[in-house]
């Protein structure tokens, strides 16, 4: 069984600590004890560490050795239209588990008015959700949870292969057909996902003009968070398979 992994602020002098509410969760919920071994990450490197002490609001670790980190086969940044927060939080959790590099909330024309202002107050909660999902899925690094941006700002921010998820209609390419034949290691992919009700014609024109490729998962109409999870699973599987093929060739 894989060891639990936790994130720490830093590793200094072969030691690290977790404080506050996170420490309380470890001691009161997970009931960690001195001498137990876990993996810790300082958001760059993963270590095997042993608990030196476990008090209510402080858990301290002694590093035993550095571990090999597994790097993602593809680097995906998600630009997701703001939707109701309970559903957006599900998107954050699952996208984090799927290994995305960044999640940026986007104010689309059909996003409910006022969500962008309320979202700023939710950032700390969203980053906590991403941290917990990162520990559960044993990531090396935490994803960046960005501040809400306007639609046109998101169009300028995307880099690498830029895919705008849309309904199946004229001009939308099936997702698999839009992926490159040669999937390079650590390739950059930006994924733009629309709100309830989909994109407006004006938004479609703007992201097409900005060089984004319209892609579709098929004729079904999916909720925003469902579409995000399904698309990320396809991207991860495609690049993981390419990485395995490269390894076999070597």
- Under CATH, the topology of the largest domain can be stated as Alpha/beta knot
Q: Beta-strand percentage?
A: 25-35%
Which secondary-structure class do the elements indicate?
Answer: alpha/beta
CATH superfamily of the largest domain: SPOUT methyltransferase, trefoil knot domain
The percent range for helix content is: 25-40%
Q: Largest sheet at a glance?
A: 8 strands, parallel
Structural topology:
Elements: E1 5-7, E2 15-19, H1 20-29, E3 37-41, E4 46-55, E5 58-67, E6 74-81, H2 85-97, E7 102-107, H3 115-136, E8 144-145, E9 149-150, H4 151-157, E10 161-165, E11 173-174, H5 175-178, E12 187-193, H6 201-209, E13 213-216, H7 224-249
Helix pairs in contact: 2-3, 2-7
């Amino acid at each position: 069984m894989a060891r639990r992994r936790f994130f720490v602020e830093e590793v200094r002098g072969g030691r690290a600590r977790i404080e506050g509410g996170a420490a309380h969760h470890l001691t009161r919920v997970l009931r960690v004890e001195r001498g137990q071994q876990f993996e810790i990450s300082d958001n760059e490197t993963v270590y095997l560490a042993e608990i030196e002490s476990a008090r209510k609001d402080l858990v301290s670790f002694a590093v035993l050795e550095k571990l090999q980190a597994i790097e993602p086969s593809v680097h995906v940044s998600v630009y997701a239209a703001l939707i109701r927060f309970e559903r957006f939080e599900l998107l954050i959790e699952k996208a984090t588990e799927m290994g995305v590099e960044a999640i940026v909330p986007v104010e689309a024309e059909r996003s409910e008015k006022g969500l962008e202002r309320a979202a700023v107050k939710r950032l700390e909660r969203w980053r906590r959700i991403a941290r917990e999902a990162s520990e559960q899925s044993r990531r090396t690094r935490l994803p960046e949870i960005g501040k809400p941006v306007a639609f046109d700002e998101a169009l300028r921010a995307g880099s690498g292969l830029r895919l705008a998820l849309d309904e199946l209609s004229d001009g939308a390419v099936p997702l698999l057909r839009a992926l490159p034949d040669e999937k390079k290691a650590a390739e950059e992919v930006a994924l733009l996902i629309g709100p309830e009700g989909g994109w407006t014609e004006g938004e479609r024109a703007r992201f097409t003009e900005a060089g984004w490729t319209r892609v579709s998962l098929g004729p079904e109409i999916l909720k925003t968070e469902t579409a995000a999870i399904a698309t990320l699973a396809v991207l991860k599987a495609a690049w993981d398979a390419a990485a395995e093929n490269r390894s076999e060739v070597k």
